[in-house]
Amino acid sequence: MSNPYSTINDYQLWRRSVARVETHMFDPIVNPRFKIDRQVKVATAGSCFAQHISRQIQRIGFHYFIAEKGEHLSDAERSKRNFGVFSARYGNIYTARQLLQLFDEVFEGREPAEKAWLRKDGRFVDPYRPQIEPDGYESPDAVVEARRSHLAAVRSVFLDSDVLVFTLGLTESWRSKADGSVFPLAPGVTAGSFDPNRYEFVNFTVEEVDRHLSLFLKKLKEVNPRVKVLLTVSPVPLVATYENRNVLVSTTYSKAVLRVVAEQMLSRFDWVDYFPSYEIITGSYAGGLYYEDDYREVNHLGVAHVMRCFVRNYVSQPSKEAEPKAVMLPPPPETEYQTVVCDEREIEMLRP
Fold first, then answer.
1. Can you spell out the DSSP letters for 210-233?
2. How far is CA 50 from CA 46, 260, 305, in A?
3. Do the Cβ atoms of 278 and 15 come closer than 8 Å?
4. Which residues form the GSCFA domain (predicted)?
């Protein structure tokens, strides 16, 4: 008797593609929609985990596109002030709504109501990237001026990138009641002051994230017709939830929403692909091997596995001889993955 499963591929069967594969050899990527080579400008944005991809692109000598370079600064100063962490100094963009509002600010003249937040030390910060400038700014006007320069760089990222890698991180956010702007950190965590009359908590639904991300992608394609987008979902759990429930339950909700939306974008746009870093790290096949002792931070083994899969499937190889060099990259130095810039960690500092 025939049945529809008799001719499916090995990768469609759990036993053959997951259970019988050695952990470090597992690779869930099938039929990637595009490749990158040394000429392709690859930009990154999103949550903390996106930084691993940008570092790997640089390590293998490919074109990681940095529009905000800080050429006039020393290497130490650039590192301190977070130049090159992402393609522009936008810091962590945790939600699709935050990405959309950034695009609208650059191309459609959107002007956020909040201009600057005051820190405890008397310095001012940008509410939409509160930790990007460690020393802060001396005045609100200085924040506005710095943001103007930053937006010019963001414009270049959107216009000039060939591939944009965006890592979806969270559904929970804090929103201004004045104009609906969302922030990467709640007011009062590192700067500003929380006022329930001015700010509200929001936990975006599938429908909302779908609308935000779909609209961003359509707008991006209008200004940059050649661009391709690679979506990922961060495998890093929430550091805290504002919902009145266990943080693990909130983590599951957020990641499920983001994964569903990524799939919807994949079916809607043929120039968008999904890279399963989330599945590689969180899959039961790994038995928690890829997390640190806190069950939250991804360790260097996990990062190395994700990057092996990325290079093997998305990087064009000029010859067979070059393939082992790219695929068999050693794990990144421990100091490298431990210094990932993550705004969300500041919440943890308040309640250690």
1. HHHHHHHHHHHHHH-TT-EEEEEE
2. 6, 19, 15
3. no
4. 41-310
Structure tokens at 103: 């695009």
Number of domains in the chain: 1
Residue 213 belongs to domain spanning: 35-350
Tokens representing residue 348 in the block: 């943890």
Asked whether residue 204 is domain-assigned, the answer is yes
pLDDT in tens, the chain (352 residues): 789 999 999 999 999 999 999 999 999 999 999 999 999 999 999 988 878 888 888 888 889 999 999 888 888 888 889 888 899 999 999 999 999 999 999 999 999 999 999 999 999 999 999 999 999 999 999 999 999 999 999 999 999 999 999 999 999 999 999 999 999 999 999 999 999 999 999 999 999 999 999 999 999 999 999 999 999 999 999 999 999 999 999 999 999 999 999 999 999 999 999 999 999 999 999 999 999 999 999 999 999 999 999 999 999 874 343 333 333 344 455 555 445 666 666 666 565 5
Give the helix ranges, DSSP H, for the chain. Answer: 14, 50-59, 75-80, 96-107, 140-160, 206-223, 247-268, 277-282, 300-314, 323-327, 334-338, 345-350
In a domain? residue 287:
yes
Q: 36 has which bridge partners?
A: 315
CA distances to 2, 87, 151, 246, 292 from 164, in Å: 44, 10, 17, 34, 29
Residue at 178 is within a domain? yes
Facing residues of 190 across strands? none
| Dist. CA 352–CA 347, nearest whole Å | 9
Calpha distance 223→159 (Å, rounded):
6
Distance in angstroms (rounded) separating the CA atoms of residues 96 and 212: 6
Nearest by Cα to 312 from 16, 1, 84, 32: 32
Residue 10 in any domain: the answer is no
Contact present, 314 and 32 (Cβ < 8 Å): yes
